[in-house]
Every structure is written in C-alpha cells, then in structure tokens.
Amino acid sequence: MKKFMLLLAGLALAITPVLAQAGDRVIIAGSTTVFPITLGAVEEFAKKHPGVDISVRGGGSGGGIGQLIDGVICIAQSSRPMRATEIERAKARGVNPVQHVIAMDGLAIIVHPDNPVRELTLEQVRDIYLARITDWKEVGGDPGRIVAVGRDVGSGTYKSFEDIVLDDELVRPDALHQASNMAVAATVAGAPAAIGYIGLGFLNPEIRGLVIDGVAPTVKNVAAGDYPIGRFLFMYTDGEPEGVAKDFIDFLLSAEGQLVVAKTGFVPLK
C-alpha cells in the first residue's frame, strides 16, 4: 500500500531488470484507476521479457492523454474514452490516437461501515451529489448532513460518474474532491457521514459498497451488465503500437494478462 501511495503521488516505477540492454523504452501514464492493472501486468510481462524498460506513472486520465498528445509518453491509460476535443487536438499535432479496451470496471458507491444505509437508487445517488438530498435521514439513515466525496474534475472516474450518474449536471459545490481512488476510500473510511465513489478494484474492508438499484457492486454483476454504473477501461497509443508497446498491450489482452485484471479486483474482458 505504501508503494502504491508513493507512486500515485507522482513517482515513477521503472521495471528494468539487471540484464536489460539498450532498446525500446515504453512510458505509460494516466489513470490512477488503471494504474494497479498496468503495474501488475508490467511486473508479469517483465518476467517473460528480460531486457524490457517500462515505466509506469499515475497522474490521472486527462494528464495521461495530454502527455500522449504532447509526445511525452508511449501509452496513456484512461478510465474514460478520449473526448472529441482531445482527439481534435491530437490530430492537429499529428497524433493519431488508437483506443485499446483493456478491462471493465464498476463505480462502487461507498459509505462508512457504521452507516446503516445498505442500498440506494441511482436517482438517490444523483440527488445526493446534486444537493437535492443533503441529510442521511432522507434515505433511511441516521440524521446528519451527508458529506459528498468525489474525484477531482480532471479525472476519468469523475467524468464517468458525471456521465452515468449526474447526467452531465454540475456536482454540488461543497463536495470534497480527491486526487485518487485511494484518497476517496480513505476519506470515507474516516468519516461516518461520508459517501464516495471508487473503481471496483479499490474496495476494501474499511468501507462498504452500496447496493444500487437492487444490484451489488461485484465483478460478476459488472461482467453481466447488471450493475448500473459500469464502464470500460482503456489504453491509448499514437497509431497502432509497435515493438515493446505492442507486445505489452497484446500481453495485457491475452488470457494471462486478463488474469492480472481479475487479480487486481477489476473485470476481465474474457
């Protein structure tokens, strides 16, 4: 956990075996949601390919996409599709973004374990984050003001939440914006009146995922398409990937790579 926190704070992890020779270097950056999948896949990939040089960073979906457009990195990891404006900006700079769907995810709506509320409707979640519902007693909980916790507006997870839950309306002005899924989870774990949302792979015993519209946030329910806040996770390259970048993405999409997706708590494609 400490290692993840340091990396997500902006440090890079370079997977560079001792026997590595000079050659292709792949830099991956972006979504903190996709980060654990990428890190796990790189570690497994490096075992089979001594000599690879792959660096993995966080920074958020928008940041990763921006770095791909600027030519700073080879692969952008993102928890949302690229926006039309980003694609236009990329093409204006001679960059041809190619999308690779690498996993599925569900946005778990989380509360403190002591919160008596076990279930909400999607409409109730929307109303909480739009400040139409402000007290837990309005949804069957103990009286007390709801503390809404979410992601920073530049993150892919925020954009997914905005698209699926908020119907593109603006989140309540008093919402607490956090820089990562782990920060949201930690905030909710320390605040009994809080509610938040995180990627499925970040659920832990210190928080509880709510049933939404009668469906629990589980890998099985997301894979079946039953959970109402599901999404895909992506990687983007400039054109079709080549060399080590291609080999790595091919590995991630293979049965072995998708096993890494499952081990990190997300939903494999097959």
User: Class of the largest domain in CATH?
Assistant: Alpha Beta
CATH superfamily of the largest domain: Periplasmic binding protein-like II
How many helices? The count is 10
Instruction: State the distance separating the first and last CA atoms.
Output: 28 Å
The average pLDDT is 90
CATH topology of the largest domain: D-Maltodextrin-Binding Protein, domain 2
What does this molecule look like?
By secondary structure, the chain is of the alpha/beta class. It folds into 2 domains: 2-104 and 231-263, 3-Layer(aba) Sandwich (D-Maltodextrin-Binding Protein, domain 2); 105-224, Periplasmic binding protein-like II (D-Maltodextrin-Binding Protein, domain 2, 3-Layer(aba) Sandwich). Helices cover 34% and strands 24% of the residues. It has helices at residues 2-8, 35-48, 61-69, 84-92, 122-129, 156-164, 181-189, 219-224, 243-253, 255-263, and strands at 13-15, 25-30, 53-59, 75-78, 97-111, 119-120, 147-151, 176-178, 194-199, 208-209, 211-212, 230-238. Strands 1, 2, 3, 4, 5, 7, 8, 9, 10 and 12 form a 10-stranded mixed β-sheet that branches. It starts with a helix and ends in a 7-residue tail after the last helix. The model is unreliable at 1-23 (pLDDT under 50).
